Amino acid sequence: MADKDTPPQPSLKPTAPSTLFVSALATGALMLLLASRTYPPVPRWYTPAFLAVLALALAYTAHTTKARIARKPGTRPVEPLVFARFAALAKASSIGGALIAGAYAGLLIYLVAHRDSLKAAAGDLPNAAFGFAASLLLVAAGLWLERACRVPDDEDEDDHPDGASTANG
Q1: What is the pLDDT of residues 10-24, one digit of tens each?
Q2: Of 8, 94, 138, 144, which one's alpha carbon is 20 to 30 angstroms from that of 25?
Q3: CB–CB of 20/139 below 8 Å?
Q4: pTM summary value
Q5: How many helices (H) and strands (E) does the chain have?
Q6: What is the pLDDT of residues 100-151, one digit of tens each?
């Protein structure tokens, strides 16, 4: 049972780079195996475009979230539940982006290896490269939003000469 004096620990830990790497590696290997068995359909340009737009939306959210936490003039007050939701969205986006990037990487490896022998592989290569780049943008934006949702250490103590914090009133 937890002690009443200890504050609750966060239940949503920051995304580890190893999690992203292993996720991408596993889906890349699966996609490469699938591609070697049967030629997979390569998503058209609008699928990676949607990923890029999602990454831009997450990046904008990260920028505004950081400003709201820093209490920049003209920003709305911080709603803790909103930031918890943003943190969950950021974690899901970074891991999902890593899974998609791995799939596109496996597909890219296959397409590059067979671009001379398969006409379709050469034609699908730009869409797969665009998808890989867009999914990497999604990972980066998700990680940025996750970082923006972190609550900074109490810097209020440095602002007051007597050491009193304004956080408690």
Answers
A1: 577 888 999 999 999
A2: 144
A3: yes
A4: 0.81
A5: 5, 0
A6: 999 999 999 999 998 888 888 888 999 999 999 999 999 999 999 999 988 7
Structural domain of 78: 17-33+42-151
The reply to whether 165 falls in a domain is no
- State the Cα–Cα distance between residues 148 and 68, nearest whole angstrom: 10
Instruction: Quote the CA–CA distance of 160 and 133 in Å, as a whole number.
Output: 47
Q: Residue-wise over 32-61: b if at least 16 C-beta within 10 A, else e?
A: beebeeeebebbeeebbeebbebbeebbeb
Provide the domain count of the chain: 1
Half-sphere exposure of 8 (CA within 13 A, CB side): 3
Q: Confirm whether 137 is domain-assigned.
A: yes
CA 51 – CA 56 distance, rounded (Å)? 9
Q: Please name the residues in contact with 37: beta carbons below 8 A apart, sequence gap of 6 or more.
A: none
DSSP annotation string for 122-133: HHHHHHHHHHHH
**Residue 136 to residues 41, 88, 160, Cα–Cα distance (Å):** 20, 18, 43
* Angle of helix 17-37 versus helix 80-113 axis, rounded to 10: 40
Structural domain contains residue 9? no
Six-digit token string for 91: 């974690």
